[in-house]
Amino acid sequence: xxxxxxxxxxxxxxxxxxxxxxxxxxxxxxxxxxxxxxxxxxxxxxxxxxxxxxxxxxxxxxxxxxxxxxxxxxxxxxxxxxxxxxxxxxxxxxxxxxxxxxxxxxxxxxxxxxxxxxxxxxxxxxxxxxxxxxxxxxxxxxxxxxxxxxxxxxxxxxxxxxxxxxxxxxxxxxxxxxxxxxxxxxxxxxxxxxxxxxxxxxxxxxxxxxxxxxxxxxxxxxxxxxxxxxxxxxxxxxxxxxxxxxxxxxxxxxxxxxxxxxxxxxxxxxxxxxxxxxxxxxxxxxxxxxxxxxxxxxxxxxxxxxxxxxxxxxxxxxxxxxxxxxxxxxxxxxxxxxxxxxxxxxxxxxxxxxxxxxxxxxxxxxxxxxxxxxxxxxxxxxxxxxxxxxxxxxxxxxxxxxxxxxxxxx
Length: 410
Description:
The chain is about 40% helix and about 20% strand. By secondary structure, it is α+β, with helices and mostly antiparallel strands. It has a 6-stranded mixed sheet with strand order 1-5-6-4-3-2, covered by helices on one side. Strands 11-10-13-9-8-14 form a 6-stranded mixed sheet, with helices on both faces. A hairpin with a 2-residue loop joins strand 8 and strand 9. Helix 7 packs across helix 8 and helix 12 crosses helix 13.
């Protein structure tokens, strides 16, 4: 086992490397070396994790760093925009996951279950102590849905401070046993509750008609909230006037390039992702892999092929259209370059598309001019995007028909 000085030296050496396994190992090892024996004390951000393996019997539990004080940033992805890959991995690797196996229906039965709910209700860090059946192991988990975290182990005991400061809005929704989960999510969102807090509450089984409440695996809960809130916003957006020009919003983060193209037309939406070789979803190929999912005016009936990222980006777009009381045909083009060496969660999509939409857009009077501009910001050419995008081809053909029809009438 490396000692702390060796870890620090190795991390300095690593800064210029691009190996995700080494990055996860060294940051995780740094956390392991701060854990004394089979227990840990620290301030949970607050943060929880509900697993999906073995559903409906899953592992639930808190995530606690070996740090006291204000650790809230570790559990609020809305605050991670602008941070580097190293910073994100270092932050999340500090969170040690306690694991307790239970049935998802046991929301109201058990001491560990109650602790998980209390953490989900909290709106600031909670001093906690955990003891494990053995010393936590370096089992870092990174996927493109849930946020990463550090070492984990099965719990023997858990204690948290007695007077947890709760989020009053979340507590109110939790106390209403007659309110459906969908209604609770929407009500909290309209009151300004962070999306990440709503996701945490859903996963902890805080919402829903009493007898229907259950724990929801974290990765499922994240997408469920993004999808539900997006659908809610779109129920209004579909009745708004259409935008009258082409607009491009752009942003660059974590070696991802984002172009959000909004076109005059009825609501439709597509996310097209291009993964370069040596990125998290394209490890073994020497070619760029491109994936897409889309919907027209009435939405989708099947889960998006591209996964949770689709719903996270759709929520961000819907928020802007709702704010501006407009509807549009929207295509998001994403290039994931080799610097994006590992997935860090769909928050990356939601928050960076949100950030793109805060920028001043470039506006154009034709689709061609908009795409010509987009091509100056992306490495992939317009013909390749067109080939892989259903909505770009559809909008191009529709506008071509309008132009040809106008010429025929002259």
